[in-house]
Amino acid sequence: MPAIAEKLITAEEFMNMPDPEDGTEQELIRGRVISMPLPQGPHGYSCASASGLVFQHSRTNRLGWVVANDTGVVLERDPDTVRGPDVAFWSFERLPKVPKGYIEIAPDLAVEVRSPGNTQRQILDKIKEYFFGGTKRVWVLDPEDRTVAIYYSPFEAKLLHEPAELDGEDILPGFRCKVADLFPLE
């Protein structure tokens, strides 16, 4: 018996789907919907902290746009991939205005906060997709280890521990914060 081909969906079809009734989060990976459980407290705190710090710096210095809350970003077409970074930044030069719907340009900076259920493979796959889509830098915050991994490419990273400082380098000029400021107080 011949196999039945699975119908892959587009970013536009994904955008028009209703929210899942069970409250799970979803992303579109090469045309397939992937569901994930809702994040836990430390994850949410780190997302809020990173978003607030990056947003405030970007707005004060008029550098670009910052989005959070898993805003949809199209990273690949045919088949389509739509990821929702925990926090993302685009310079005004690359994204002059925030469009309606999903953003079709990979961010300059994507921030991902590792959840307890994330495997290293899942994180690395997401990092590769960001870079292949055109992202210039990825920060991976790990609330459990209280570290930040700065990815310069899918294969080159620097790991920061407390009490180090995170520097925005050429992506967010002038941005600095203590690694500890990204995680819940101990």
Structure, briefly:
The protein has helices at residues 11-15, 41-60, 120-133, and strands spanning 25-29, 32-36, 64-68, 73-76, 81-83, 87-91, 109-113, 137-142, 147-153, 156-161, 165-167, 176-178.
Topology:
Layout: H1 11-15, E1 25-29, E2 32-36, H2 41-60, E3 64-68, E4 73-76, E5 81-83, E6 87-91, E7 109-113, H3 120-133, E8 137-142, E9 147-153, E10 156-161, E11 165-167, E12 176-178
Parallel strand pairs: 7-8
Antiparallel strand pairs: 1-2, 3-6, 4-5, 6-7, 8-9, 9-10, 11-12
Index terms:
186 residues; alpha+beta; tt1808, chain A; six-stranded mixed sheet; 3 helices; 21% helix
Q: What is the CATH C level class, in words?
A: Alpha Beta
What's the number of domains? 1
Broad structural category: alpha+beta
Helix residue percentage? 10-25%
Indicate the low-confidence ranges by residue numbers.
Answer: none
Tell me the fraction of residues in β-strands, as a range.
Answer: 25-35%
How would a textbook summarize the main sheet? 6 strands, mixed
Radius of gyration: 17 Å
Total helical segments:
3
Label the overall shape.
Answer: globular
Give the tally of β-strands.
Answer: 12
Spatial sequence of strands, sheet with the most strands: 3-6-7-8-9-10
Alpha-carbon distance between the two ends: 59 Å
What is CATH's topology name? tt1808, chain A
CATH architecture: Alpha-Beta Complex
- Summed over residues and divided by their number, the pLDDT gives a mean of 92
Topology pattern, helix = H, strand = E: HEEHEEEEEHEEEEE
CATH superfamily: tt1808, chain A
